[in-house]
Amino acid sequence: MEAAPTVLTFTVSDDDTAAALGSGSLPVLATPRLLAWCEAATCAAVEGQLRDGETSVGTRVQLEHLAPSPVGQEVEVSARVVHTDGRLRRFSVAARNLGPTGPGKLVGSGEVTRVVVDGDRFLERISG
């Protein structure tokens, strides 16, 4: 049986826009913020599978930003595990603008790959 996707909802604020983040000049959802929201959904999806001291790190992203979302727009972001191999987790991600009748226009879609690591050992490797 396939697991249900993890779903998070965000509201586009002035701080989330391309103009605010330097990824363009328009007051619409910035691609870097969309990516961060997709990664947040994957982190939430893997969280329940982690043992004490474990975390996950992003290693690969493929994301298409397909439609604009203005300030004030609610955006639903989902992450579904599509492949597991040992410590590796690959997720299908999708973001949709929410309307009065639920999820609507597809804003973005892609894949995010994360690897489960021991947090302390990971930090030791980079500190020294």
TrEMBL record:
Q: Which Pfam families match?
A: FlK
Fluoroacetyl-CoA-specific thioesterase-like domain: residues covered: 12-118
Matching SUPFAM superfamilies: Thioesterase/thiol ester dehydrase-isomerase
Q: Which CDD domains match?
A: hot_dog
PANTHER family the UniProt entry points to = BLR0278 PROTEIN (PTHR36934), THIOESTERASE DOMAIN-CONTAINING PROTEIN (PTHR36934:SF1)
What protein name is recorded for this chain? Thioesterase family protein
